[in-house]
Design goal:
alpha/beta, Rossmann fold
Length: 369
């Protein structure tokens, strides 16, 4: 039975589902959800690209930042915990870079938390040769007294979200199925959703529709409880609260990706398309601060990569491939693409158990308020 049929069956048995539950099933239902089913999701033959698909430079530059973090932590045994490794290209490229730093690599363990069995299966193939460094775990809660870096790349925007609309009171979106089609209806929002907005000091104007990512709060709590000393790098599409709730986003930020085309209709291609919602970095920072994860820096992915040496990396690439005009053109196109995409993607770094440090990747920070 397809995930769409499972969703319809659940609605018939239980009544309308919150949009959160609909999205969770569409993406992660065992064997038939978007991320749990077979088929390519990422890259040329998938539905979208992520930065690691464009070359090993992304993993190398993040590896460069991680080495600096290792130094700040006293050059002791170091753990990297990556949530949602997907194709595992980032992990492979980072390890390939880090192994050239023998003192660090010797004491390094790379943990991967990946809820998709299909992605894990593919990731294990990509990471052939690094088995002695990589450990697959179900959650960070299984670790304790961790010193190192927690990393996620385009993960949090795939957490299932609640959708709300401000009418005479705050209303939550639920999903029904009538006359062969999915329909929406509204119910008064829960206290938890009210509290989320109140804690951020957000008052939505009449008619404003947006997403609330409560799962992000649980996720950052899990990290904070297990991380003793170190850093959290979150790379994702998103905004600060001041930008997220501007008038131009009064319809929300929900987007779907299917065969490299974008739409805003989560009720078609159910189980066959990715569903995302932009991250509220203000909320993520506040959740973390309440749990001892202090703000370390916030910038765009473009600024982050440029600070770590992207320009020089591409310059060297062009020199190596001067004999091939097509390769030169490819490097130029790659640089342009990264800068365009990289302005939309943000990088938040939080830290725990250290005095405030200045990291190389945060040389060009964005306003954070």
């Amino acid at each position: 039975m397809s995930v769409k049929e499972n969703i319809i069956q659940r609605i018939q048995l239980e009544g309308p589902l919150s949009f959160h539950d609909f999205m969770e099933m569409a993406l992660y239902y065992p064997s038939s959800g978007y991320y749990t089913s077979e088929g390519e999701k990422i890259g040329k033959h998938g539905d979208y690209y992520t930065s690691p698909c464009l070359g090993n430079f992304f993993g190398e530059l993040i590896g460069k930042q991680v080495i600096e973090m290792w130094t700040k932590l006293g050059e002791q045994d170091f753990s990297i915990i990556e949530y949602g490794a997907g194709s595992a290209l980032l992990c492979r490229d980072m390890l390939d870079y880090l192994r050239h730093n023998s003192p660090m690599y010797k004491g390094l363990t790379y943990y991967i938390i990946e809820k998709s069995p299909e992605m894990k299966k593919k990731g294990e193939k990509v990471l052939a040769g690094f088995e002695n460094k990589v450990k697959w775990i179900d959650s960070m809660a299984s670790l304790s007294d961790v010193s190192g870096c927690v990393l996620s790349n385009e993960l949090v925007d795939n957490f299932a979200v609640h959708q709300v609309i401000m009418q005479d009171e705050l209303m939550e979106v639920f999903v029904d199925h009538t006359n062969g089609t999915f329909t929406e209806l509204l119910k008064p929002a829960s206290k938890q959703l009210h509290d989320h907005l109140n804690n951020l000091g957000i008052t939505l104007p009449q008619g404003f529709r947006t997403e609330i990512n409560l799962q992000a709060e649980s996720w950052i709590k899990e990290i904070a409880l297990s991380l003793r000393r170190g850093f959290v790098i979150t790379i994702d599409y998103g905004y600060l609260s001041a930008d997220l709730y501007e008038e131009q986003r009064k319809s929300g930020t929900l987007l779907c990706y299917h065969k490299h085309s974008i739409n805003d209709d989560p009720y078609r291609h159910v189980g066959e398309q990715d569903i995302t919602a932009h991250v509220n970095f203000s909320a993520l920072s506040r959740y973390g601060a309440n749990l001892g994860l202090n703000h370390c820096g916030f910038t765009s992915q473009s600024n982050f990569l440029l600070s770590l040496g992207l320009t020089e990396h591409l310059r060297q690439l062009e020199k190596k491939e001067q004999s091939s005009p097509a390769a030169n053109n490819g490097a130029s196109m790659l640089f342009t693409f990264l800068l365009q995409m990289g302005q939309k993607i943000k990088v938040l770094i939080q830290q725990k158990g250290l005095d405030r440090v200045m990291l190389s990747g945060m040389q060009f920070p964005l306003r954070f308020a």
